[in-house]
Design goal:
By secondary structure, the protein is mainly beta. Helices cover 5% and strands 38% of the residues.
């Protein structure tokens, strides 16, 4: 639906609000390489081998979400110099939190950049996938997200929409395990 602004005579497009039902997002564990190191002292034989990135959520269906404790951000990762947001998140209701890597996108990066005050380690965050919208230049569709931030001393969550505008929410949404009802 296009409307003309009387003041400027410019054409604007009205965007319908997006409504989604929350559900946990699937988290994929990258294939681990088997690495053997000879000559390790006995105390290091059973140590975890760390490398690469932690598992990542795969956002495919609107409403998929991940909630957890923000750990930090890595810049210039991979061939596209992307951002990766690290979150301590639960994979399921009865599991302990694990470090999870959420790949940045133009929309998600803009929300993190425009959050005031900036999202910091220790903030509780939620990332909700809202779906895709086509671009004007016929490129890959843009993935839309909602970023929720709950600061340690904040009673209300700050919501960053895909437009980068922050608003206060009275309560952060909770992800319900679909199999628990």
């Amino acid at each position: 639906m296009a409307r003309r602004s009387k003041a400027e005579g410019a054409e604007t497009t009205a965007v319908a609000p997006i409504s989604v039902s929350l559900r946990p997002v699937a988290i994929e564990q990258p294939e681990a390489e088997s690495i053997e190191v000879e000559g390790l002292p006995a105390e290091w034989q059973a140590a975890d081998v760390l490398g690469g990135l932690p598992p990542s959520p795969v956002f495919e269906t609107p409403g998929e979400a991940i909630f957890g404790l923000f750990v930090g951000v890595r810049d210039n990762v991979g061939p596209n110099n992307s951002r990766v947001y690290e979150i301590m998140a639960h994979k399921g209701p009865d599991q302990k939190p694990e470090l999870t890597a959420v790949w940045g996108s133009t929309a998600l990066d803009r929300m993190f950049d425009s959050a005031l005050p900036k999202v910091q380690a220790g903030d509780r965050i939620g990332i909700v996938y809202l779906g895709e919208r086509p671009t004007k230049r016929n490129q890959n569709p843009v993935k839309l997200f909602k970023l929720l931030v709950k600061r340690p001393n904040d009673a209300a969550a700050t919501t960053m929409g895909s437009n980068g505008v922050g608003t206060k929410a009275t309560k952060a949404p909770e992800v319900v395990n679909p199999g628990s009802k």
